[in-house]
Design goal:
Helix content is 32%, strand content 31%. The protein is of the alpha+beta class and 456 residues long. Among the domains are: 138-240, no CATH class; 321-454, Substrate Binding Domain Of DNAk, Chain A, domain 1, CATH 2.60.34.
Length: 456
């Protein structure tokens, strides 16, 4: 199961950290530590809960764990950087000035995450528009590069290369990673290649040697072999980046055109892929009226910001709702606005079923700790087992919960009592944080406890 794989990975990191820190502080206990797990901001609520469950299974106490959104963590870190630590910034510039609006572009391995923040008078940050992103991280360039190699040696040869010669495949990946980050402009790029293995694979699957495979491909004039290396012409190497860079710049442009983003003049690049010279150059040329800033240790910005967030979870005081959230209700049927397919007769009265009753709307401003209270009936036939479905959609004004673009976010399930009471249950949902929290109160006993939305 995926949960097992992720939990084992987190456990390995947790155990390694504990072993190292106990070399310096022998008496430290796992409950003495605030654990922070970073995730892309574009991840769904269910994906964030999956990571929390993985961490819990790895032995990290849930009450000592915080989920941090990666571009938010980077943004928090940049608040503490002096000008000399910001490549591209004018002398005296700081993102810590009150009223400063800036964009954080987190260029990671798998995704690009973008968020826009403004510094408030109290020193906290507010989100201007909800985080956006896509699969335009550094690994998308890697995939394009290996597709280029595959187009030369063939699918079967590439499959065998990955499975049978994994160490050499990783060596090639690492060499490409170095060239990818440091590439500026040159007439040709020289790269290590496992020449003898490629010779063997091409002979086996194509009945020709590696050099002949290149010469018969569409890259015959762009790629050459010499002394066990391949030499790639500049234009061909740049083409490997093209789709990813276009995706990144298009996404940035879309966000700059959103409401409330006017007055923004700084774009801060963080994440390992932000060290790529070509990416920085293209973003600067595409948005010449924006100051493109790169922290010197941009690859560590998320990590260091997450440490700060662990101590200051209120650093982001306002967020923007990514979805519309609500419950399914049965309401009085109105023939002027309700579809007859949702008509139900209940106790002789016309009712409309599956009405989307919103509690938070998409793009709504969510202050930290925003509470929304709803009530639901505890059915006697369920023997005290309380269940409530929460729905989500990217629509601003959904009508029904069974529309195509609506889905179940998760289910609140709690054993309230075994008395068969038909009392109402008060459900409090807390928004504005990186995760949705739930509190449940039984009206008859006034007992209140923390609940959970089961999303996975």
């Amino acid at each position: 199961m995926a949960l097992d794989v992720f939990s084992l990975s987190i456990k390995a990191l947790k155990d390694h950290f504990l072993n190292k820190i106990r070399e310096q502080i022998a008496e430290i206990d796992i409950d003495d530590i605030r654990w922070v797990l970073t995730v892309p901001a574009i991840w769904s609520d269910g994906a964030k809960q999956f990571m929390r469950s993985s961490a819990e299974k790895a032995g990290i106490p849930s009450n000592r764990l915080r989920i941090a959104l990666e571009p938010e963590a980077a943004s928090i870190y940049c608040q503490y950087l002096p000008t000399e630590k910001l490549e591209g910034a004018e002398k005296g510039f700081t993102v810590a000035d009150i009223g400063t609006k800036y964009m954080v572009v987190d260029l990671g391995g798998g995704t690009v995450d973008i968020t826009v923040h403004e510094k408030k008078n109290d020193g906290s940050l507010k989100e201007i528009c909800h985080a956006s992103g896509a699969d335009y991280g550094g690994t998308s360039v890697d995939r394009t590069f290996f597709k280029l190699i595959e187009s030369i040696i063939g699918t079967a040869a590439m499959k065998e290369f990955k499975s049978k010669y994994l160490e050499l495949y990783l060596d090639l990946s690492r060499d490409f990673e170095i060239k990818k980050r440091n590439f500026g402009t040159s007439e040709e790029i020289r790269m290590f290649i496992p020449f003898m293995i490629f010779e063997e694979l091409c002979e086996k699957h194509l009945n020709k040697n590696f050099k002949s495979a290149i010469e018969s491909s569409k890259f015959s004039t762009d790629i050459a072999t010499r002394y066990g290396n391949i030499r790639i012409k500049e234009d061909t190497f740049i083409s490997v980046f093209q789709q990813t860079i276009v995706g990144i710049t298009k996404l940035i442009g879309e966000i700059l055109n959103k409401k409330g983003v006017d007055g923004l003049s700084q774009i801060i690049l963080v994440g390992g892929f932000s060290e790529c010279t070509l990416v920085k150059k293209e973003i600067k040329s595409t948005f010449p009226d924006k100051k493109v800033i790169v922290p010197i240790d941009s690859g560590m910005a998320v990590l260091k910001g997450a440490v700060i967030f662990g101590n200051k979870p209120g650093a982001i005081s306002e967020r923007i709702a990514k979805c519309t959230y609500g419950f399914s209700k049965r309401k009085k049927f109105d023939p002027q606005k309700h579809d007859r397919s949702h008509l139900e007769i209940v106790d002789g009265k016309d009712k409309c079923s599956h009405v989307f009753d919103p509690i938070v709307k998409r793009n709504e401003i969510l202050p930290l700790g925003k509470e929304v209270i709803s009530t639901a009936k505890l059915k006697p036939e369920n023997n005290g087992l309380f269940t409530l479905l929460i729905y989500q959609t990217e629509k601003d004004n959904p009508v029904y919960t069974d529309e195509d673009d609506c889905s179940v976010l998760g289910t609140i399930t709690e054993q309230i009592s075994d008395t068969g009471t038909s009392d109402k249950i008060k459900v409090k949902l807390i928004f504005g944080e990186t995760e949705i929290r739930i509190k449940i109160k039984e009206r008859a006993t006034h007992k209140e406890w923390n609940g959970k939305i089961e999303m996975i």
